Amino acid sequence: MIPVERIARSIYLIRQEKVMLDSDLAGLYEVPIARLNEQVKRNLNRFPREFAVPLSQDEFDSLISQFATSKTGRRGRGKLPWTFTEKE
């Protein structure tokens, strides 16, 4: 069972939507980020545009600037993260 507090800390407001970053979602499911994103890209018909959305560079920079210190690994990413909403 995943503590509610851990999930709550992983929810951000982007584009007026509550979202989770791919890195946080992968952590909850205990899978590599690359594997999660690979499955999204291979199954786009299962992930509607409103559910899985890649961040722009400006959005990512804005999100990072909200942290006093960034979470480990986020600044060193080679690709921009995807965000996931609760919408279906």
Which features does this protein show?
4 helices, 38% helix, four-stranded antiparallel β-sheet, 4 strands, 88 residues, alpha+beta, globular
Describe the structure concisely for a colleague:
With 88 residues, the chain is α+β, with helices and mostly antiparallel strands. The chain has one domain.
Describe the fold and architecture.
There is one protein chain. The chain has 88 residues and is of the alpha+beta class. The protein has one domain (4-84). Helix content is 38%, strand content 17%. It has four helices and four strands, in the order αββααβαβ. The chain has helices at 4-9, 22-29, 33-42, 57-65, and strands spanning 11-14, 17-21, 52-54, 82-84. A four-stranded antiparallel sheet has the order 1-2-4-3. 12% of the residues are buried.
